């Protein structure tokens, strides 16, 4: 009996990680705003939709941005800015006020799923460290009072530099200076079912390693087996820096006896441009890193220590922040410029060829050959009416008026709708008279939405979206077949233990 009870207790402890294993990992994007011509929130949200970006992290709780995100289904992690941390950590009333003003006014219309209380507090504003855990607790208490604590997780984003001796990962530990903060913090994350937020920058690890870390290892490029890093304590093989850092964090937590706290990577990326001291900040490397990172995360590969356990990741970052000070690379971490033009086109499909201008797999939605004219006309009318497509390009004198045929006009309207819906699956159908093509239907001055890759960093359109069929809410949890077996096993054992208790 006692052993069953123990086993049940142990299994309950394992559940959060098991739950992460059952869930698909997502890729989100950070939205920094140090941009000279910062697009307005409506434009930002239009870009997110066009690129099928379903998860974002903000560095504050900007009301205009949160309002623009309302009703989009996009999951939002908001932040308590560092400069507000001291006040919130010292007063539960201030914390309650912050939650009332920045959270309660926006949920449920805006799907806020997490609050990052401060950013890299231990390394950037160590003087606030003594109140960090109180700040999390006060914010959490305010959410609990509003019955939002199960929906909104509370955590704080750490720099991975608080992890020492991070290779081999099995020997990693948190800088002991911070044990008085980390232990209660991890206890808080555990008891509230939250996760460790970690910023992972293989770029800096590589830069600071003075060639000890091969570039390929930082970029997730395949290594010859004899070059793979092996942790001699665990015999686990590491094929990339990202996994090694995430595992170092798992080991550092388990060193403090916390073995069931999941990790979400709140920042990771690679700069596409640098000065002469930053020769590896290039378009190609940025493209390679982010393309491989996205594939790695969405594949639910997990890490060598926890294979199959989701490590959802927010790419740093959406826009190049040209107004940031410091090295040239600081201004060049973005996927897009302020006009929403991709800095480079990610390679998310197929062979992993390294063409920065690869638009070969760009897709468009057009009228099907030989489709019934009446049905095309009806679909065209629907798109320009209830479908709310902007059909002004097809009025007389406008660029897409010629050729004045139902087929040509329907094609334009279908494609505009397809892009308006973020190229989601099922949005190029129109009762069977539409079809997807890779041939750009633009002609003359009539530019079809999606043409020339200007809107198409994520060639495949669905790449950052959950691979499910739902287009708007995306609320269906998809289960990763590879892991569901272990979850089933656990619930069966739990059932058994319930019988025996
Ligand atoms: C703050 O904490 C005090 C003491 O624990 C409690 O009485 C009070 O209700 C809390 N206030 C808020 C706004 O949560
Ligand atoms: C640990 O953190 C303290 C406080 O920030 C810092 O002074 C010290 O250099 C860190 N130790 C290492 C080895 O980085
Ligand atoms: C972790 O647990 C072990 C075994 O129970 C114990 O010896 C050790 O002191 C604990 N470490 C911490 C940091 O609590
Ligand atoms: C995807 O995951 C499978 C196992 O789940 C693994 O064998 C494969 O190498 C992974 N692919 C990538 C690109 O990570
Ligand atoms: C795309 O190609 C053109 C010319 O071939 C080049 O000028 C441009 O810089 C390329 N764009 C990117 C993002 O590499
Ligand atoms: C484009 O798609 C084709 C077929 O779907 C695939 O074979 C090819 O590798 C893709 N090209 C790139 C560059 O991803
Ligand atoms: C999406 O789901 C609906 C109903 O569940 C189904 O009819 C439709 O064929 C699916 N579309 C795609 C593209 O899988
Ligand atoms: C990009 O997308 C926007 C809105 O989705 C659209 O108005 C614009 O025409 C597109 N540009 C190109 C070149 O496709
Ligand atoms: C798209 O690319 C084609 C061929 O590279 C070029 O002729 C055309 O002008 C481009 N269209 C736009 C809108 O940039
Ligand atoms: C788009 O991505 C999905 C899921 O990753 C994949 O099944 C599909 O083949 C891709 N489509 C193209 C055109 O590459
Ligand atoms: C909000 O996000 C959560 C977590 O991803 C999801 O379970 C829920 O369905 C979403 N709600 C809406 C309205 O999109």
Keywords:
3 domains, TIM Barrel, 15 helices, two-stranded antiparallel ribbon, disordered C terminus, binds 2-acetamido-2-deoxy-beta-D-glucopyranose, 501 residues, 12% strand
Can you put this structure into words, describing what you see?
This protein is α/β, with parallel strands linked by helices and 501 residues long. The protein folds into 3 domains: 1-23 and 479-501; 24-331, Glycosidases (TIM Barrel, Alpha-Beta Barrel), CATH 3.20.20.80; 364-449, no CATH class. Helix content is 36%, strand content 12%. The chain is built from 15 helices and 14 strands. It has an 8-stranded parallel beta barrel. A hairpin with a 4-residue loop joins strand 9 (229-231) and strand 10. The longest helix has 21 residues, at 2-22. The radius of gyration is 24 Å and the shape is globular. The structure holds 2-acetamido-2-deoxy-beta-D-glucopyranose (11 copies). Residues 283, 344, 356-357 line the site of one 2-acetamido-2-deoxy-beta-D-glucopyranose (NAG). Residues 1-21 form the signal peptide. It is a lipid-anchor; GPI-anchor. Belongs to the glycosyl hydrolase 17 family. It is found in: Cell membrane. It comes from Helianthus annuus (Common sunflower).
């Amino acid at each position: 009996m006692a052993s069953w009870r123990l086993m049940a207790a142990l299994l309950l402890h394992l559940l959060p990680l098991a739950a992460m294993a059952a869930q698909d990992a997502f890729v989100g994007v950070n939205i920094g705003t140090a941009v000279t011509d910062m697009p307005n929130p409506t434009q930002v949200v239009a870009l997110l939709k066009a690129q099928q970006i379903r998860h974002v992290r903000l560095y504050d709780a900007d009301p205009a941005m949160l309002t623009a995100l309302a009703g989009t289904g996009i999951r939002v992690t908001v932040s308590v800015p560092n400069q507000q941390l001291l006040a919130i950590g010292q007063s539960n009333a201030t914390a309650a006020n912050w939650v009332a003003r920045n959270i309660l006014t926006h949920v449920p219309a805006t799907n806020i799923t997490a609050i990052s209380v401060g950013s890299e507090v231990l390394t950037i504003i160590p003087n606030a460290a003594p109140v960090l855990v109180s700040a999390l607790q006060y914010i959490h208490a305010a959410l609990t009072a509003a019955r939002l604590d199960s929906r909104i997780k509370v955590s704080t984003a750490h720099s991975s530099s608080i992890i020492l001796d991070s290779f081999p990962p099995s020997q990693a530990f948190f800088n002991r200076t911070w044990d008085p903060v980390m232990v209660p913090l991890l206890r808080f994350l555990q008891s509230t079912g939250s996760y460790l937020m970690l910023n992972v920058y293989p770029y800096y690890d590589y830069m600071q390693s003075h060639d000890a870390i091969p570039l390929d290892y930082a970029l997730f490029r395949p290594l010859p087996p004899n070059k793979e890093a092996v942790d001699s304590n665990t015999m686990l093989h590491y094929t990339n820096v990202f996994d090694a850092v995430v595992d170092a964090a798992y080991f550092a937590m388990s060193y403090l006896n916390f073995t069931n706290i999941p990790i979400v990577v709140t920042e990771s990326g690679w700069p596409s441009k640098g000065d002469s001291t930053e020769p590896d900040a290039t378009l190609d490397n940025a493209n390679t890193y982010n393309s491989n990172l996205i594939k790695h995360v969405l594949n639910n590969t997990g890490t060598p220590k926890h294979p199959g356990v989701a490590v959802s990741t927010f790419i740093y970052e959406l826009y190049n922040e040209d107004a940031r000070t410091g090295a040239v690379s600081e201004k060049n971490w973005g996927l897009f410029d302020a006009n929403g033009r991709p800095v480079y086109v990610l390679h998310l499909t197929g062979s992993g060829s390294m063409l920065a201008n690869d638009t070969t797999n760009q897709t468009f939605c057009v009228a099907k050959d030989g489709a019934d004219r009446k049905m095309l006309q009806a679909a065209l009318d629907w798109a320009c009416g209830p479908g709310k497509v902007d059909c002004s390009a097809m009025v007389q004198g406008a660029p897409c008026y010629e050729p004045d045929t139902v087929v040509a006009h329907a094609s334009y309207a279908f494609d505009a709708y397809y892009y308006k819906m973020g190229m989601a699956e099922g949005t190029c159908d129109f009762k069977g008279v539409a079809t997807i093509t890779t041939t750009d239907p633009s002609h003359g001055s009539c530019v079809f939405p999606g043409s020339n890759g200007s809107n198409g960093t994520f060639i495949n359109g669905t790449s950052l979206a959950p691979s499910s069929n739902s287009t708007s809410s995306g609320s269906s949890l998809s289960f990763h077949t590879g892991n569901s077996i272990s979850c089933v096993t656990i619930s069966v054992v739990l059932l058994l233990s319930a019988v025996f208790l």
